[in-house]
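Sample 1 of the test manifest.
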Amino acid sequence: MNRKSKDKRECERLVLASQAGRREAFNKLVRMYQNRAMEAAVRILGNAGEAEDTVQEGFVKAYLNIGSLKRADYFEFWLLRIVANTAISQGRAKKLRKQRIELAQYRKRRQQPSAVGKQESFELKEAIGKAMLKLSRKEAMAISLFGLDGFSHKEVADVMSCSVETSRWYVFRARKKLKAELKEYL
Amino acid sequence: MEDAENKLDMLLNRNASEQLDAVDWDELNAVISDRLDRTAGGGLNKRRFLKVASGLAAAAVIVFAVLVFFTDGQSDLVLEDGRTAKVVFSPRKGKALVEMQQDVSRANVAVVIGSGRRGSALVDLVTGSKAVAKCEVEIKDVKGRKRSEKRASWIIISRPEPVYADNGDVTNEMSMLHLF
């Protein structure tokens, strides 16, 4: 049995235990999938700070609704869908408010001598966050999930409950928009 | 075209890995565990409590509606000047009696509930043949498909209009409110 299928079995066991009300089992699921969830959220939101809030919220939603998950082997897809939807919804509402604060901080930092690399990272993070806002909900979700390690259009389609062709279309549209928005960084 | 796509992917990957490098995973895990603890302690109990509470509230509404439908209503009202009035409702008959306690003024109110129309009427509370107060009776709703099932929901509001006491002095009748 290879490592991947062993992990999958372990995940299914933990999901069933969580559905039976065992908190410790859900804690193990959090440890197994928090990196994956963070990566999906960072890809949508552009920055780790907001992604952490989103991932916390996502896990709480998953915990409260785990009883409704019919297929234990779909836990990862189900969790990523929750996290991605939460990221898109919360991110867009918070984005404008945070952007104003961060813009003020950014202007302040620009006046002080700082490492060039750090400033570039900050600008990139901001630019990606803004560019992602130009995408539709489904485009943002598709391009972010597609970037995850080991995720093909098949997995993206599974998470989004759509066909592989539709996933391809969303990724194509998202790339086109992002290329236009981020052209100065390419 | 493909080159631009690769560059875009690299850019997104670079940002993601830079952002993820800064994450304190142990702290994140601790925060999530803490939130789950609070959810398990409060959230689920709260949800159960809300479910039970809403169930009880719904049951109470049903019991109240049944009681109102099948029984005549009666209520004592206290006016601001200390006087009291008794209101007796007969929902299925479409009648109400408003009766002042300290004096003998009273008003009989009848509505045609078969019409299914809402509206209000101003009635006098009388002592003998003399009006001592005005009372507005408003029909909030009339329900029931068949004529025999019709019943009215009432609201009685006193009018802030002069009340003529027996000695001819003018006083003000204040809020007198009741809902059936």
